[in-house]
Backbone:
């Protein structure tokens, strides 16, 4: 394992709506590097949950219940949610 | 000073008769627009009649987003009393799944604000629905695929 990519924090991910069916679980704990952003999280998710990978590009990531930019830093203890295209109304 | 605002997710039939009293009666507001979204009948060639929809929400965030939309509509238009309620759980055909009502001084901004609120809700509020068909088949509604 490269020292540039140490996995040293645990992030709890919530899979909502259709993403829950694709992930096969409502939530998961994921080991992630300390400098994780939504962009890097997508790579980790695609590896661990291959069924979610094809649709991941259309899914948004919310941190602490707000949509965030792809380069925003995720911190230990944050509530991270995978939000597939919504279909309310 | 508080302008009436009712934002909610409800797992029972939406009490639509309670909406109008909340957005009417104040002489400041001469234009009141309400939108009700209801479950539409459809038939799938393979799975038959649609029986119902099943809605679910990322509840807390959905409410946060609805409050954000409410605030943003008030910063864009002169929106007074506002109602935005959405149903969660099983919703039968013809039943109301969402109700939005706004009162503004004039009708033009009331129409615009109401239209913007329902359009933005459908894009930015984390709520999903599943079609449930007569043969038991269910599928998530994919908003990225055009519907007939």
Residues:
């Amino acid at each position: 394992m490269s020292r540039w990519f140490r996995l040293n924090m645990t992030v709890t991910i919530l899979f909502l709506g259709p993403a829950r069916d694709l992930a096969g679980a409502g939530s998961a704990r994921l080991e992630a590097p300390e400098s994780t952003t939504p962009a890097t999280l997508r790579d980790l998710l695609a590896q661990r949950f291959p069924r979610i990978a094809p649709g991941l590009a259309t899914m948004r990531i919310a941190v602490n219940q707000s949509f965030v930019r792809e380069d925003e830093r995720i911190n230990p203890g944050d509530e991270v949610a995978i939000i597939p295209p919504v279909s309310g109304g | 000073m508080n302008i009436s605002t009712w934002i909610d997710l409800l797992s029972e039939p939406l009490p639509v008769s309670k909406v109008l009293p909340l957005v009417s009666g104040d002489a400041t507001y001469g234009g009141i627009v309400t939108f009700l979204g209801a479950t539409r009948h459809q038939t799938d060639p393979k799975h038959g009649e649609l029986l119902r929809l099943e809605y679910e929400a990322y509840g807390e965030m959905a409410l946060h987003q609805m409050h954000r939309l409410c605030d943003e509509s008030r910063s864009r238009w002169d929106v007074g009393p506002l109602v935005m309620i959405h149903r969660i759980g099983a919703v039968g055909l013809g039943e109301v799944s969402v109700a939005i009502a706004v009162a503004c001084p004039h009708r033009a901004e009331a129409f615009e604000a109401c239209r913007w609120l329902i359009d933005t809700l459908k894009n930015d509020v984390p709520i999903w629905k599943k079609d449930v068909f007569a043969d038991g088949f269910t599928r998530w509604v994919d908003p990225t695929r055009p519907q007939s």
Remarks:
- The mean pLDDT of chain B is 96.
- Chain B touches chain A through 27 residues (CB under 8 Å).
- Strands of chain B lie at 5-10, 31-38, 43-44, 48-57, 82-87, 89-92, 96-104, 127-133, 138-140.
